[in-house]
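Hi everyone,

Forwarding the result from last night's run.
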Amino acid sequence: MSRSSQCDGGRWEMDANKRLSELSNGYQHAIVLLTAARAGVFAAMGRQAQPADALARRLGFDARALEIVLLALAADGIVTREDDGFRIHPDFAPLLLPDSPTTQDSILKHNYACMKRWMSLDEVLRTGRPASEPAALLPHEDMRNFICGMANISRLSSAEVAARVDLSGFRRMIDVGGGPATSSIVFCQKYPQLNCVVFDLPGPLRIAREEIARAGMDARIETRAGDYFRDELGEGFDLAYVSNIIHSMGPDDSLMLMRKCHRALTPDGTLLVKDFFLDDSRTAPNFAAFFSVNMLTGTAQGKSYTLRETQDLLARAGFGDFRHLDVAAASGLLIARKA
């Protein structure tokens, strides 16, 4: 028995039983990977081969349990099994080691926290309420993983935005909900005339200041503590950047934020909205459809928006002259001018 179904705008044909088995068992691979990251297994392994028993002693783990997990990671190609133990596969080491400039360590640890709330999806279906506290109320370690995880995933997407959108004509940018300041840093590194203000809550801004200092950008990037639900963003900006923010909000709050951006911009100002946009079917791209479930479990009103919905909100907020670009692996960028 076979069937066809739409998947990210393409076609796949697969035995239905095989497809169902893959989907229903997919959690196993994710849990092994995310637990290993959360437990510090990859950090302890480093770049050398490690015997499972010695690694278990160092981490305080049961040797049998750790070996079984390492074998599963080897089966997925994340680590390799060698005569002298287990080694992180060289393709994955730059992504898994916390000290690597391309590390994904924090976002994996954040995804571990997300995984736990996804397990409450049945309760969310009954109540319609999120399964976790708002991000601002997360414990310190979870908050740090969340904000640093945003830095992990934002490096490449920010570089692509900077490469595909000419920002050479802009002088002052407000980075709304800018978290670890990754986008501001990347933009300022490419465009020497640009200065940025990162607007966020005090917790994320503590991390932002660390990142700004590490990048040597203290003279060009400042931080401004505030809550965009309650506070105005400031004024006199010719560019506003809203990256991966509106998916955490309902339509009314998204419109409110767009209007605040409109007030913060100069008469000819430009707004860039980056997010995981759905097409009009709301079933593709696949990543955005499932990210909506992530927002269902973690926010009161958040979801993935379609481009059309977002453009309509921006028009109501006083923006026009729209342009859209696909950026990074799963994001879209909506460019709008203040009307």
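Confidence is low (pLDDT under 50) at residues 1-6.

Cheers,
N.
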